[in-house]
Amino acid sequence: MNCFYHPDSPAIGLCKYCQRGLCSECAVIVDDVVACKNRHENEVRQLGQLAARNLFHSKRVSSAYMRNAIFYGLVGVLFAGFGLVQYQYLGLQAVFFMILGLFLLYAAGANYFESRKHK
Ligand SMILES: [Zn+2]
Ligand SMILES: [Zn+2]
To answer: pLDDT: is 47 or 36 the higher one?
Structure first.
């Protein structure tokens, strides 16, 4: 493949923005990717920033859901376990704890799946 702007020169890379072939005269490196010199430098820089921001945001959201999942899971196991152990002493009250525990476990599962969606 040859340069889009200089058909006689062999291309050394593709512009990340417009995907055209570029020779060493036309290519410029912006944030580790190739761009058309004086044409798409800004566009490629913005593309890179956008991708980096999305990645950062997605990671933060995912870890927040994961934290919730672990928290709900632990408390849920605690409540359900307490209800099971105390059932013979507390009766209906213990059932209430078990239901609360199951509800928290359900919330933990929902948060876990949500965190995987954001990976
Ligand atoms: Zn370009
Ligand atoms: Zn060229």
So the answer is: 36
Residue 77 lies in a domain: yes
Q: DSSP letter string over 29-74?
A: EETTEEEETTTSHHHHHHHHHHHHHHHHHHHHHHHHHHHHHHHHHH
Domain-located, residue 15? no
Find the ligand nearest to 3 CA.
Answer: 2
3 Cα to the center of ligand 2, angstroms = 5
- Model confidence at 107, pLDDT cuts 50, 70, 90, reads very high
Question: Which residues line ion ligand 1, judged by CB < 5 Å?
Answer: 15, 17-18, 36, 40
